[in-house]
Design brief:
single chain; 408 residues; alpha+beta; OB fold (Dihydrolipoamide Acetyltransferase, E2P); five-stranded antiparallel beta sheet; 17 strands; NA-bd_OB-fold; signal; structural constituent of ribosome; ribonucleoprotein
Length: 408
């Protein structure tokens, strides 16, 4: 009985101490050395996520300086509250004002008035430069402390930073200028920056345009063409497909056609022979020398007169400025009929002199035709008796009106 009382007393003491928490420590020891967890700290509350700046500040081990803020009329806490209370509205594709403040990590930091500076990558700093084959630095693309437009191209990252672009703004502006150039259909100049098997690549308002080799005049699409500025005109403009095709030949033809007129003597090169005539290249234009316009004498074998690559002189007898086509003649340059078959070199040597005589003869024939037409008209007039339909009317306007009034 006495041993039972001792056992109950021991169990009572164990139960009272094992589950009573310590007042000053979150853990307490049981009689067996087991620690119990304070109920107030049993549930761990998740800590707020730190920003990159806060993590750097937390991990900083260097010397710390004390700043005297007694003379400042605001505190850091007030500044943080003011920043938190400020409303920012930056959306993707918005165009905003900004200033490049620093070159960083191959790009640039841009102050756009947000919590954090925006980042401008090198690839978004502008359109293709004139010398596209050389590597460009960000310092060559944008200037510091110069305000300009930027387009937002991303959402904020974990540090509140946005990504911006200048290239996309310039891209839209370039297409607007190109569409205007196409509407005006004017000749413009552009620099060749690359060549390939099919032709060349030229920069038009900062955009790459394809120049087919068949539309090059007096040049081949090789490395010697890179860096050369050429007159061009548009062949195709398709903004949706991002496609630009240009022509050097069309620009050259249009420029030369303005200076050409019927009766001009031009030099050219035989490019091809056909049963109906020869095609002659004149300053980048293709002209047809029809077999009937080669000589006053009949031609049975055209290859006996010309061969491809031969240089000739011709007179322009007709032209189509819209399509860049011209009709040529050597017959009009013959001093004597048949000279093209007998001595073509003599015809070319005397081309300018013969052409002047031809124009004088044509002008005399024109005047003769006009005089003949005038004589015919005058002769018809002399044979006609023209009577005046009012010759027999003797009443004046006043008498007619008075007579009408009396009748009333």
């Amino acid at each position: 009985m006495q041993s039972l009382s001792v056992t109950l007393a021991f169990l009572s003491a164990f139960s009272s101490n094992a589950f009573v928490p310590h007042l000053t420590s979150p853990t307490s020891s049981s009689p067996f050395g087991v620690k119990s967890v304070d109920s107030g700290t049993a549930l761990n509350v998740a800590a707020p996520q730190l920003t990159k700046f806060d993590r750097l500040k937390r991990d900083y081990k260097g010397p710390k300086s004390t700043v005297d803020t007694s003379g400042i009329d605001f505190t850091y806490e007030a500044f943080e509250e003011a920043v938190a209370a400020t409303t920012y509205s930056f959306n993707r594709n918005d165009v905003i004002k900004g200033t490049v403040v620093q070159y960083d990590n191959g790009g640039a930091l841009v102050d756009i008035g947000a919590k954090a500076s925006a980042f401008l990558p090198l690839a978004e700093a502008g359109l293709v430069t004139e010398n596209a084959n050389e590597k460009t630095n960000i310092e060559d693309m944008v200037e510091l402390d110069v305000e300009q437009d930027f387009q937002i191209i991303s959402e904020e990252d974990e540090n509140g930073q946005l990504m911006v672009s200048i290239r996309r703004i310039q891209y839209r502006q370039a297409w607007e200028r190109i569409v205007k150039l196409q509407e005006e259909d004017d000749v413009f100049e552009a620099e060749v920056v690359a060549v390939n098997r099919g032709g060349a690549i030229a920069l038009v308002e900062g955009l790459r345009a394809f120049l087919p080799g068949s539309h090059l005049t007096g040049a081949l699409p090789d490395d010697d063409l890179i860096g050369v500025t050429l007159p061009l005109k548009f062949l195709e403009v398709n903004q949706e497909a991002n496609k630009l095709v240009v022509s050097n030949r069309r620009a050259v033809v249009e420029k030369q056609m303005k200076d050409l007129s019927r009766g001009d003597v031009v030099s050219g090169v035989i490019k091809a022979l056909k049963p109906y005539g020869a095609f002659v290249e004149v300053g980048g234009m293709s002209g047809l020398l029809h077999i009937s316009q080669i000589s006053y004498d009949r031609i049975d074998d055209l290859e006996a007169v010309f061969e491809p690559g031969a240089k000739v002189k011709c007179m322009i007898i007709d032209h189509d400025k819209v399509n860049g086509r011209i009709a040529l003649s050597t017959k009009t340059l013959e001093p004597e009929p048949g000279d093209m078959l007998k001595d073509a070199s003599r015809v070319f040597e005397m081309a300018d002199e013969t052409a002047a005589k031809y124009h004088e003869r044509m002008e005399a024939e024109r005047k003769a035709r006009e005089e003949a037409a005038k004589d015919i008209v005058m002769g018809l007039g002399d044979g006609l008796e023209v009577s005046d339909p009012l010759a027999d009317v003797t009443d004046s306007l006043e008498s007619v009106l008075d007579g009408d009034g009396k009748k009333e």
